[in-house]
Specification:
signal, 5 domains, 909 residues, seven-stranded antiparallel sheet, CarboxyPept-like_regulatory, mainly beta, six-stranded antiparallel sheet, Immunoglobulin-like, globular
């Protein structure tokens, strides 16, 4: 209690303790005084101009560690760091040296070009405000021409871009009401991060009409700052109306983190009362604050969009002290900013939101509600759930009878929801008046891959591909993707557009190299693509890759590229948006229908059983009070027999089922079109992309070289599990409770859907619909060789509806029984059988043609919709038909940090 009173006393008396700095400013060498020189304390509003004798006097309540700055036009600015240490008076003298290298304003402006403009835009985002900050339009640099940039290459370290300024930056901040002089000392930015440092002097703007609003905005920013949090810790506050503080624990291997804060409290975050954070006086007027680890700060009175929790609608920050502690003065100001790492909302702070260190709040600004009372705007929640497809094709135009391959990925307004949104994409081939064909493709981790044959009877003309999801139909037509698709007469092809590559400073560079060798059936090109950022550092990317015959496939400029598609992310829902969300999210092939009872007195709400084939998939859903039901999650290609019925406790069918057909969206008001001119094809037999030209051979390995894997080793074709426990670890487990505690529980990641019990697979045999407790009673962990868990939306989707609740795959030791004896063949008596189309079946592009067959020349040489680099490099062997002289390489995708890649390269063989 004594410590608390002492600290509180320091804060009470701090406003009464005025300190004074006096001194002179003279010219170095001559010793002549410099009248009207500027002298100020950095990061404050405290400053004075010297008198005719070069003298100055500054008075105020000063921070513990300060920088005093003296500047004069045409002279080199001088900075002195001092510790006030409770001193009442401090004397400082400055000697300024003439700046021989100053350039005039005209000279500086003449050196600006497009490269400079690009770098200055990025400079503003790092220095002034982030692009999505509401303050960004309210702050500007009025003398931008004083800034210059250079690329710095560092041996053994990442390269970076450095910014310098020959004069102080003049900044008008109408958001906080300050005019700022910034003396830039260091600014550097690389793909790994950025930093800037300098001396700053603040003066309040003189617009009295805005003063009241400025006071409110300044107070709000103050109460969201690390400085205020530090003051709350120093004051030993039991709580604050502005922050909730949590200790962010390390991720547990036996548990998958959710996006629900209420589920994470006590698991990955632990509430920490502010008064429990340890702090100690250092004895020199400063204090040391000790952090138990990474701290998660919730700004409960600051509404802000975040992608970390789906049920939290305020700003979140994280702070960590690498040394376990950091030092502050009595005002809560950091003595050494490098002692604390800020991220999240606090990490977004730029000049637009930074207050002077001598700022004191004018009002007792209080939060309007605590965490549990924060209400999300329904329109904002609807906006966060939006998704839109983007894809491209292997070439820009096609002929009737050709095969078109497409690849791309989904765009999400809120990436945190991506694993919960749609996993089915619909693609329609349409013209202005009708839909000719429709296709259905699975979405795997938001990636799009598909293919289809263009009908040989399709009339030539301008068509389009439309991509959409069922969930996306709850929104406007703008959330549907349209890609122009010209279908041409085989006797013609478009005239090529000129290929112009823009090599500007500040974009991703792609360097290509290749070598060619001959074989009997084709040529082999070893292709290397290296991706470098603007600092010449390697950067990883994912992209769609198409290689076409440059002589046969003309280059066409396409308006609907990925960069343009990303504009959708910046478009909010209109204020009058209304929807009933009648179109649900699809997690696989779906069925919708009505249950019709045998008599009117029978309730319409009944469990509906859905079975695919001979129990290849199985699930049960509940019809509502009107008899309607919806089932989703089946995963199969082409068409399957689906048995559906209501089943009573005796497993007998009753009532009848009527399916509700799926409708299509209305035709769009207009279709995008490519602009091109046609020319006649000189060759009477034009080259066509047809999938049947190649015969795919599976790779094989001689048994003496590699031992053949068993089905169990390959997880029965179901892919890599999320968790796995082997024989040695299982032998240490006393019962299944310990096993499940180690492997983690299953969560519900299906939006608005309820999951059933986990699916059990024992020695490759599925046991759908059975109580897991009944199965595990028959075996003990010591009898099991391995147990594998599939419990996230991506890995369990391949199991269809049966895998909704997750999957346990168990392999028992030889000699032990594999579970309860049961005949799992499906008896469909009483069920109604429906033919339900699944995902569109298509042949993958034949990138690996057989070596013993001559490779015919085709327009598309190579196609891969899922390319990923490793350490910034992509390597591949491309089989090239004889006769190809030019290969055009087209890449569309994004770097790991989200920058768009859209590039066309030409390789001359």
């Amino acid at each position: 209690m004594r410590i608390r009173l002492l600290i509180f006393g320091l804060f009470i008396t701090s406003n009464l303790f005025a300190q004074t700095i006096t001194g002179t400013v003279r010219e170095k060498g001559s010793g002549l005084p410099l009248p009207f020189a500027n002298v100020f304390i950095s990061n404050t509003t405290l400053g004075k101009a010297t008198d005719k004798e070069g003298r100055f006097r500054i008075t105020g309540d000063l921070p513990q560690e300060i920088e005093v700055v003296a500047s004069f036009v045409g002279y080199i600015t001088e900075v002195k760091k001092i510790s006030t240490g409770g001193k009442a008076e401090i004397e400082l003298d400055f000697e300024l040296e003439i700046n021989e290298s100053n350039l005039t304003e005209i000279q500086l402006k003449a050196r600006r070009d497009k490269n400079w403009e690009r770098e200055f835009r990025r400079f503003e985002e790092v220095f002034l405000a982030l692009p999505d900050d509401p303050y960004k339009p309210k702050i500007e640099i009025t003398n931008p021409w004083v800034v210059d940039f250079e690329k710095v290459k560092v041996q053994g370290a990442p390269n970076y871009v450095k910014a310098t300024a020959q004069e102080p930056l003049k900044i008008i901040n109408e958001a906080l009401g300050y005019e700022v002089d910034y003396y830039l000392q260091d600014f550097r930015v690389s793909r790994a991060g950025s930093r800037f440092y300098g001396q700053v002097f603040y003066e309040s703007l003189g617009q009295d009409s805005l003063k009241e609003n400025w006071d409110e905005v300044r107070d709000e920013n103050y109460y969201q700052s690390i400085r205020f949090l530090n003051q709350a810790i120093l004051l030993n506050s039991t709580d604050t109306a502005h922050f909730r503080v949590y200790h962010a624990l390390a991720e547990r291997l036996d548990r998958i983190r959710t996006n629900d804060l209420t589920m994470e409290i006590g698991e990955t975050v632990v509430p920490i009362p502010v008064d429990s954070i340890l702090r100690r006086p250092n004895g020199d007027g400063t204090f040391r604050i000790f952090l138990p680890g990474r701290m998660e700060i919730h700004h409960i009175d600051k509404p802000w969009k975040n992608d970390y929790y789906t049920n939290v609608y305020h700003a979140i920050s994280w702070i960590i002290a690498p040394d376990g502690y950091y030092d502050v003065d009595r005002k809560g100001i950091l003595i050494n900013p490098t002692q604390l790492v800020l991220s999240g909302y606090m990490g977004r702070q730029r000049m637009a939101r930074i207050l002077p260190l001598d700022f004191e709040p004018k009002s007792a600004y209080l939060a309007t509600g605590f965490e549990g009372e924060v209400v999300q705007n329904p329109l904002e929640k609807s906006d966060r759930l939006r998704e839109k497809a983007w894809f491209t094709t292997n070439k820009p135009y096609f002929y009737p009878g050709e095969t078109a391959w497409l690849g791309g990925h989904m765009l999400y307004q809120e990436p945190a929801w991506s694993d919960t949104l749609s996993r089915v994409l619909y693609v329609d081939l349409l013209d202005q008046d009708s839909i000719y064909q429709s296709y259905t493709f699975p979405l795997e981790e938001g990636r799009i891959s598909g293919g289809f044959e263009i009908p040989a009877s399709l009339p030539t003309g301008d068509y389009a591909l439309r991509g959409y999801t069922t969930w996306g139909r709850n929104y406007s037509e703008s959330d549907q993707f349209l890609l122009p698709l010209p279908i041409l007469d085989p006797g013609f092809k478009p005239k090529a557009d000129s290929l112009i590559q823009e090599g500007v400073f500040g974009v991703i560079q792609i360097q290509s190299s290749f070598s060619i060798s001959d074989s009997l059936s084709y040529r082999v090109m070893d292709l290397d693509l290296s991706f470098l950022d603007e600092f010449q550092n390697p950067i990883d990317a994912t992209f769609v890759l198409s290689l076409t015959d440059g002589e046969e496939v003309p280059f066409l400029h396409q308006e609907n590229d990925l960069e343009k598609a990303l504009d959708w992310l910046d478009k909010d829902l209109p204020d009058d948006f209304v929807t009933d969300f009648s179109c649900p999210i699809e997690y696989g092939i779906s069925v919708r229908g009505n249950f019709i009872p045998d008599n009117r007195r029978m309730p319409l709400a009944q469990p509906i059983t859905i079975v695919r084939g001979d129990l290849e998939d199985y699930g049960q859903v509940q019809s509502d009070s009107l008899g309607r039901f919806w089932a989703t999650g089946m995963y199969y290609r082409d068409t399957a027999q689906i048995a559906i019925s209501a089943v009573n406790e005796r497993l007998r069918s009753f009532g009848s089922i009527e399916l509700i057909p799926f409708s299509k969206p209305d035709l769009p008001a207009s279709l995008p079109k490519l602009t091109y001119e046609l020319e006649r094809v000189s060759n009477e037999n034009p080259l066509l992309d047809t999938s049947g030209d190649y015969i795919l051979l599976e790779e094989f390995v001689k048994e003496e070289v590699k031992e053949r894997d068993t089905m169990a080793d390959r997880n029965y074709g179901y892919g890599i599990p999320n968790r796995e426990m082997g024989e040695e670890e299982l032998a240490k487990m006393g019962d299944w409770t310990q096993v499940f505690g180690k492997l983690a529980l299953f969560g519900n990641y299906t939006f608005g859907e309820k999951t059933g019990p986990p699916l059990i697979i024992i020695n490759g045999q599925k046991l759908p619909g059975m109580d897991p407790a009944e199965i595990f009673l028959t075996i003990v962990p010591a009898e099991v060789e391995s147990i594998k868990v599939y419990n996230d939306n991506i890995s369990k989707s391949i199991f269809g509806m049966m895998g909704y609740g997750g999957v346990y795959m168990i392999e028992t030791k030889k000699g032990f029984k594999s579970g309860p004896e049961s005949d799992r063949k499906f008896n469909s008596e009483g069920f109604q059988i429906f033919q339900i189309p699944g995902f569109t079946d298509f042949k993958e592009f034949p990138n690996q043609p057989p070596s013993d067959q001559f490779l015919k020349r085709k327009p598309t040489i190579y196609w891969d919709p899922f390319v990923e680099t490793e350490n910034g490099i992509f390597k591949s062997q491309v089989k090239v038909p004889y006769g190809v002289k030019v290969i055009r390489v087209k890449l569309d995708g994004r770097t790991t940090d989200g920058e768009v890649i859209s590039k066309v390269l030409e390789l001359r063989l």
